[in-house]
Amino acid sequence: MTSMRKAVEEHWLASERGDSEAEHAIYAEDAVLDYPQSGERFRSRARIREQRGGHPAERHFTVRRIIGSGDLWVSECTISYDGVPTVSVSIMEFVNDEVVHETQYFADPFHAPAWRAALAEPTA
After folding, report:
1. CA-based nearest residue to 52, from 5, 16, 4
2. What are the backbone angles phi and psi of residue 122, rounded to the nearest 5°?
3. pTM over 0.85
């Protein structure tokens, strides 16, 4: 297992534990976090940590998949906010074993339409 993959796994485990120090240890001091859907950018580990720490909801993190190599890693997660699940994709770019840029996308789950039922199989 690569050190970057291990760091990403620990990031999500720390997120679930509510261990803010360990959760944000993965980021470079001058890291950037983008939320394209809301048009927000957070510059610096301190601001990333502060905006997450101020979240009013109870959050839980379930990792569905981590994939990547070298300096680019992608996580697919379900994040529950006060029990309501949201699917998230996190793209982390590393330099010198630290995340320098993360882009995180969020999508609410939806029910599959009946017309596709014969074509699909459940993922969960």
Report:
1. 16
2. -70, 145
3. yes
